[in-house]
Input
Amino acid sequence: MRRILLALILVSTLVSAPAYAADPGPIYDPVPTEPVTSKLGLVLTEYAQFPKSETNPPLIDQRLNRVARINTIMELPDGSGRRAVPDLNGNLYIVKNGVPSVYLDVAATFAPQFFSGRGLGQGFGYVAFHPDFKRNGLFYTIHTEQASQTTAVPDYAQTNVLFHGVINEWKATDPAADTFAGAHRELLRIGFGGQIHGIQEINFNPTARKGSADYGKLYLAVGDGGLGVNNTDPQNLAIPHGKLLRIDPAGRNSPNGKYGIPPSNPFVNQAGAAGEIYSYGYRDPHRFSWDRATGKLYLGHIGEHAIEAIYEVRAGDNMGWSEREGAFVFDKTPATACDRLFPLPADDSGYTYPVAAYDHNPAPGWNCTSDVGVAVAGGFVYRGQDVPALRGKYVFGDLVDGRVLYTEASEMRRGRAPATIHRLNLFTATGTPVRMQDLSAPGAPGDPNRVDLRFGTDARGELYILAKANGKIWKVTGTRTYAGASAGHVRVAPAPRASNWAPVTPSKWQFTNGQVILAEAGSERPGPRRPFEYAVLSAGPAWKSVDIRAQVRLDEPVTLTNRDVIIVFGYQSDTQFYYAHLSTDNTILPHNGIFKVNNADRERIDYQWNGRSRGANPAVVDEKWHDVRVKHLPATGEIAVYVDGRSDPLMTARDTTFSSGRVGFGSFDNRGRLRDLTVTGTPAA
Output
């Protein structure tokens, strides 16, 4: 594992502090390593359930078929403890003590022009409350309107406009009221030539002090309309598309006279440039937030076909789209592989590269017009008090598959190697291990595997996780260590002699020099698909909870692909057991994972497999000895596999099929050996 992590550092310097490859050939796997599974798990307590809402007009894209298209949660900056939640289908909710009520119906206000039925970011997209809301009652919203249904003229527009993104200012007559009454006015209207990538978020800098240059300035994350892949709009400083904007709602020096352009904006005095632009070169700048301790601005950026990125944003930055995707040259050549990127040229300059990134890992034969299934959901650097283990971590995730990730904020440094991305485990409030897909699927219409993950915080900096799939919000209320409980205290260290082992084919095994040796590769046997050859430890008891530690080695050249050894546990019979598959390859379903055989074809159960093309980072990458630890806690179903002494598991799973069993060692069709085996745990009755 240490070698793997070193390779990760060396290869992934391309993402943030790029090395310029002499070979200009295409790159099909730009981030070859996967997020590192963390032993840390978040405890999620359900906070609120939102009512079913419908798109207007009726949905066209089934991915919009959600219980409630809730986008974030935030606390009103008035000390009341009330939280605000926008639903893309039209309602702005106020939440008190976990109970939502409608504060403002944005859809009804702008009917019949209001439009939320096509495009994943269309509808009532976001709300931002002025930091002095308690006194002035001001807040701001984004909504979309179909161009064919309105006579309004955009302030800025792409060609062949299909929809408008509209920013409105609202003034509440009574800021303390739980139902809005007051007035509104339009600030800015932007026309988009595509159905996607509109205005994704608006927000105020919570770290700006009253009286400072950034206080009361509204930031707007504006997408490229879905057209940047084929045009230069994100690089065109004359228009706001593919940009992060900063405006002053209290000013009036904008081209339309409805808002102000801060004089400190980086392009204010540049001829032909829109003064509202703060940074540029974006495809879909989805979510952004400020670290309340450092004031740094981080932005989650959804890529085209390969790179999901986190940027640290400063005034004047150019993130490169669509000349660049992440820290790679984007291939605009028609009729070529849609996930193909190229290394940067030696004379590269002028672009800002991600401080963290992961890639899509499309399955072989992927259809370029289909959804590859990953898109980053930007998050927050945790600075709350309730969850000390999270402090200083930038928590974000993948909005499609629901993985919750983090990086250390201290590692996210511009011009340096990218921060290591860790995958967090999740637990219910009662301590049951879960995935977001488990939490969000119940009652979810449409695709139950699509979580539609989002994040939010309250005034104290505590963290919330949202799922559009079933319209629920959970609060992060603590942490647990995955498979952290003791397995027990009975210890067995069996001698490696034949009398202690029961092999499938005894003639293929040797027990000598302190080692258990599979000297001849096994052959496939009748019955369910399962490892071809293994030996079960017959000495000592069968085990309930168990902690297995040993050293293993491959006796095969790793220049050959798909080499493996296995650790058996929970063994009850030749067709009923678990096994940890430790392989040189992590790109095909049967390799490098945690599996169950239960009188049927082996079933992959580890959380690390993405369902299509990639699992945890390779476990055994050479022909040397490797430390392996497998921990199984049947009471909760937790399974964790560790390699080479790392404190974080390489693989995790949860399954409660087998509550006890024996342990063993083997392979599918390779040769290998085991030594220094110790088994600690609780014997089965």
Summary: The CA atoms of residues 39 and 482 lie 5 Å apart. Residues 1-17 have pLDDT under 50 and may be disordered.
